[in-house]
Design a protein that fits this description.
Largest sheet of chain A: 6 strands, mixed
CATH class of one domain in chain A: Alpha Beta
Distance between the termini of chain A: 35 Å
Structural class of chain A: alpha/beta
Helix content of chain A: 25-40%
Strand content of chain A: 15-25%
Radius of gyration of chain B: 24 Å
Order of helices and strands of chain A: EEEHEEHEHHHEHEHEEHH
Strand order of the largest sheet of chain B: 1-2
Distance between the termini of chain B: 12 Å
Largest sheet of chain B: 2 strands, antiparallel
Structural class of chain B: mainly alpha
Number of helices of chain B: 18
Largest interface: A-B, 45 and 37 residues
CATH topology of the largest domain in chain B: ABC transporter involved in vitamin B12 uptake, BtuC
Oligomer: heterodimer
Number of strands of chain B: 4
Strand order of the largest sheet of chain A: 6-7-8-3-9-10
CATH topology of one domain in chain A: Rossmann fold
């Protein structure tokens, strides 16, 4: 079975500085995979490489077996990968409803259509309503996204990410800046919404990571030093030394 | 500031009656266009209405770029002008071959011209938004405008190319010689274009245009290429600008380099911005106001452009949402029934504000006419520019008006806050 995501010997340098060195990562289909690592380890850069936001200097990235390194983000998105952003990245002047609907349009095949009334597309309407229901924002549907509370914006961010029905979902620190209660809610949401899909998540909150992930990869200085089940990672001396320390014990 | 204009869920739920009032608005607009020349039937009004109609289509087409897609163009007159030239050539060709094509079809040729140009240059132009697009649009605008003076066979040099709209075949006995017939031709195209442009905003492409305006980066991660979206928007904007240019060519029976120039590009930016780019109807209000000001101010003052500048600066600074923005800010108050608590403060503020405005006008006119010119006629009172009493009056109005107005403006803000709080409590404001 081909992996959902396969990263082979990817390097990324900005000028002379190598941010990512010999990155190898394999995420099986249907797996919940967490990437952890200290600040500046290159977690977000890894996300940006896989989602096409930046191009690798060398190496190869595959999505469901197909080479995607070098493709533009929208081309990768159309092949079934969707990502969220660490800093909330929504359409601020558009309503919650419109935010989600925009994310539904391509996947439902309406593309650049300028001959259809967007309000008369039943499957778009239904799917948007479902997503809003899923992210608990139905009651805020007509509020511009820029006016939502922070936690609500984070939920909308997840909603936009999953709306297109991508098979691979990548979430970049979805619970960053949330309170404990909000985090719990968000984790339950993520668990439910990514059911049956492949999930790659970057997270700092270790309780979230160990509670959610099937497998964990530890990234240090642009290189993955260990990859395995939560138990394996917990027991790995290299990981303890490099990063986790007393946090896990 | 922005949170004051947001309708809350409770207010936005009233959708069932929406369809009726929606079609009602268009029907009223159509009826108004039909009836207007019957009420104001003088030649001057007909000319004004015709110019306003052209300006409305042009400004709406501009807003496909600025308001809908977030593209600031400094060269939108290029498509307008090329549409005009193509329409003139089309009219002359049709007339000389006696083809059975009636005049009302000609604006379509203008539209095709505007779109064709956008098709050719648009892909490179729309690669980036922001400053890059603005600069390229400025460059293309200057390039085409200066080319129009050099390429004499196509553009007729300084004198332009003339035509005679009555040489085309009559339609139902209409020759389109009289201005009233031209007015109805324009009114027809205003309705068709406005409906088409509104419909465009309600399509998947139209919605994604808004998304590109808000956040082009994120659009790439929901499957869309923002470059393609901008390119398509640019072509549609070019199409409708070309229609406006084609109508202008019919109206004036000439196309010349002034159609294409920076002045024309600036004027449409001005109209759209003053009207308000955030709402579909904003540029319509802007086009009406700017055309009227242009026609009216040129008769009373030689420095009318100065007033344009002041109005523009005032709008940018104090009401960046334009006229439409100001109007729509009041909608939640009307729904919550608290508008009445704000009106008195407006009336009080109006008096010193008006005094301040008069003082500024008096100052400007004094400076403008100091070294010769007619006496200044302000509200029927004659002022002599060289008289110290005039200077004193101007100073008193400006300083006194400002000092008093500042207090009343604060009152307006307070009254507004109270009304907004009530509206928020009643669920009409988020």
């Amino acid at each position: 079975m081909t992996a959902a995501i396969e990263v082979n010997a990817v390097e990324k340098s900005f000028g002379n500085v190598a941010i990512i060195r010999d990155l190898n990562l394999s995420v099986a289909k249907g797996e919940r995979h967490a990437i952890i690592g200290p600040n500046g380890a290159g977690k977000s850069t890894t996300f940006n490489l896989i989602s096409g936001y930046i191009k690798p200097t060398s190496g190869e990235i595959r999505l469901n077996g197909e080479v995607t390194s070098g493709l533009r983000p929208f081309e990768i998105n159309r092949r079934g990968l969707s990502r969220s952003f660490q800093v909330t990245n929504v359409f601020a002047r558009m309503t919650v409803w419109e935010n989600v609907r925009c994310a539904v349009l391509w996947a439902t095949g309406h593309r650049y259509a300028f001959w259809k009334n967007v309000d008369n597309l039943p499957e778009v309407k239904q799917r948007t309503a479902e997503i809003l229901d899923d992210i608990h924002l139905s009651h805020r549907r007509d509020v511009p996204a820029g006016l939502l509370t922070y936690a609500e914006q984070r939920e909308l961010e997840i909603g936009i990410t999953i709306a297109g029905g991508a098979s691979v979902i990548m979430l970049d620190e979805p619970t960053a800046g949330m309170s404990h209660a909000e985090t719990e809610r968000a984790v339950a949401l993520i668990r439910r919404l990514t059911e049956g899909r492949t999930l790659v998540i970057v997270e700092h909150d270790m309780s979230v990571v160990f509670g959610l992930a099937d497998r964990i990869s530890v990234l240090v200085y642009g290189h993955i030093i260990a990859s395995g089940t939560p138990e394996e990672i917990r027991g790995n001396p290299k990981v303890k030394e490099a990063y986790l320390g007393e946090e896990v014990d | 500031m922005s949170n004051a204009v947001t309708p809350a869920p409770a207010a936005a739920k009233q959708e069932s009656g929406g369809a009726l009032s929606f079609y009602g608005v268009w029907l009223i607009a159509a009826a108004a266009l039909v009836v207007l020349p019957l009420i104001f039937s003088s030649g001057g009004s007909l000319t004004s209405f015709s110019l306003i109609g052209i300006a409305i289509i042009f400004a709406l087409s501009y807003n496909i770029l600025l308001g809908q897609t977030g593209l600031l163009s400094f060269g939108h007159a290029v498509q307008y002008g090329l549409g005009g030239f193509l329409a003139v050539h089309a009219m002359n060709t049709v007339a000389s071959h006696n083809w059975p094509i009636p005049l009302p079809v000609i604006p379509l040729m203008g539209g095709i011209g505007g779109m064709a140009f956008a098709l050719v240059v648009g892909w490179v132009m729309t690669k980036r938004a922001g400053t890059v697009f603005a600069m390229i649009s400025l460059g293309i605008g200057e390039l085409v405008a200066s080319s129009s003076l050099i390429l004499r066979s196509a553009f007729g040099g300084e004198s332009g190319i003339t035509t005679d709209r009555t040489n085309l075949m009559p339609l139902f006995g209409w020759t389109f010689g009289p201005q009233i017939q031209v007015y109805y031709l324009i009114a027809f195209w205003v309705m068709v274009s406005a409906i088409a442009m509104y419909a465009l905003t309600r399509t998947p492409l139209g919605r994604i245009c808004n998304a590109v305006r808000d956040n082009p980066e994120r659009v790439e991660f929901i499957g869309y290429d923002p470059h393609v979206v901008r390119y398509l928007a640019y072509m549609f904007a070019g199409f409708f600008a070309g229609i406006a240019g084609g109508i202008a060519a019919i109206n004036f029976e000439i196309a010349n380099s002034a159609y294409l120039g920076a002045t024309q590009s600036g004027l449409v930016l001005f109209s759209a911005f003053i009207g308000g780019t955030a709402y579909f109807f904003g540029p319509i209000l802007g086009a009406i106001l700017v055309t009227y000001l242009q026609l009216g101010l040129t008769n009373v003052t030689s420095v009318w452009q100065l007033y344009f500048g002041i109005i523009f600066i005032a709008i940018v600074m104090f009401a960046p949402g334009g006229i439409a923005g100001i109007l729509m800010k009041h909608r939640p108050l009307i729904r919550a029934g608290t508008l009445g608590t704000v009106i008195p403060s407006y009336l009080v503020a109006a008096i010193p504000t008006l005094a301040l405005a008069l003082g500024i006008i008096l100052t400007i006119e004094t400076v403008a006419r100091f070294s010769g010119g007619d006496a200044i006629n302000l509200l029927g009172i004659p002022f002599v520019a060289t008289a110290p009493t005039t200077w004193a009056a101007a100073a008193v109005l400006v300083v006194g008006g400002f000092l008093v107005a500042r207090i009343t403006w604060r009152r307006v803000a307070e009254a507004w806050d109270r009304a907004a709080t009530v509206a928020r409590d009643r669920g009409y404001l988020a």
